[in-house]
Amino acid sequence: MAKIFFSLSGEGRGHATRVRALVESLRGQHQVAIYASGDAYRFLSPLYRGTPVRLHRVGGLRFHYTASRRVDHRKTSWEAIRFMKRLPLLVRMLERRLIDERPDLIIADFEPALPRAARRLSIPFLSIDHQHFLTTYNLTSLPAWLRAHAAFMALIVRAICSGQDHTVVSSFYFPPLRTSCRNVTQVGVMLRPEILETVPEHQPHLVAYWRRFAPPNVLEALQASGREVRVYGLGNRPRLGNLVFQPISEQRFLEDLASSSALISTAGNQLVGEALFLGKPVLAFPEARNFEQYINAHFLARSGAGTWMEMEKVDPSHVTGFLNQLENYRSRIQRSRMNGLPATLDVLRDYLPTPETSVVADARCRGTHPSPSSLTV
């Protein structure tokens, strides 16, 4: 039995969903601890309370939004700089935790602190996330303006997480890797047990999901579709014609998605991949100025399994046009490529210890470091 530590970004639910899928596949055979912040901690906390899986809160990076509900790059960047200044203290605290507990393997999902502590102690660590597509994928098919943003974001990805023994890129799209890449494995999205066990149906209703907000023109376009639309992420509101606003419920959302005709949502990698695995075409609305989502949307359209439109420009004709092409989109979905869990577990097995390597791991984790007072710096 190995001891595996996970750390993950706290922004949104995609990171938490990905880590949860891996943890559920490993927890029966190995000891697992998770270090999370923000949304991820809040999402995982009730799931693992009272279980052998230990969940710890740490400080982390997050997006900030303007009053007009766009990503505030200035404030986000400023807060990121402040966090990076505090990062050495957090790394030292985590280093002490690693010395005390002697994990065999570190797995990071776009989180900067635990990998740095692992490197200082020569503990193997893997990167398993979506964001490393920016440093490993051949993105020459993108329009020039998106390639420029991708090049800048790649610098951020390298600053946050680099030096890993192996990189697993989890994505619903599969362009060629860059020729310079080494020790990189390209897989589909990490699928939770509930999704793997679900038998999809195709009923007339649609499912819509936004993380925080949807402009009025989007709701008007959905109203004009004439179909029942089960809306998640905007809170529990009174019904608005054919729009039924649902409170966040993981189980109900999955049931509604699995029985729907299609998904209409922002262009987050994890959710789009889950929908495609369930055979649902996707109409994606990237969040304004969220360039990673624009890239996701671009590759969704290239795959033929859906299309996209800028949120502020959506009108009823875009939704109607999407619905008129559902069968064509559905026929282009490659469901068999969406499940990235088996290939990821194959990579992990190559890095899990044998009895001989466990002796080495014990030796490398001995040392003297300051005791941590808090992990939320």
Characterization of the model:
This protein is of the alpha/beta class and 377 residues long. It folds into two domains: 3-190 and 340-364, Glycogen Phosphorylase B (Rossmann fold); 194-336, Glycogen Phosphorylase B (Rossmann fold, 3-Layer(aba) Sandwich). 44% of the residues lie in helices and 15% in strands. The protein contains 16 helices and 13 strands. The protein has helices at 14-26, 38-48, 73-101, 113-120, 133-136, 144-160, 193-196, 216-223, 250-258, 269-277, 291-303, 316-324, 326-331, 335-338, 341-351, 355-364, and strands at 3-8, 31-36, 54-57, 105-109, 125-129, 166-170, 184-187, 206-209, 229-232, 243-246, 262-265, 282-284, 306-308. The strands form two sheets. It has a seven-stranded parallel sheet, sandwiched between helices. Strand 4 (105-109), helix 4 (113-120) and strand 5 form a beta-alpha-beta unit. The model is unreliable at 357-374 (pLDDT under 50).
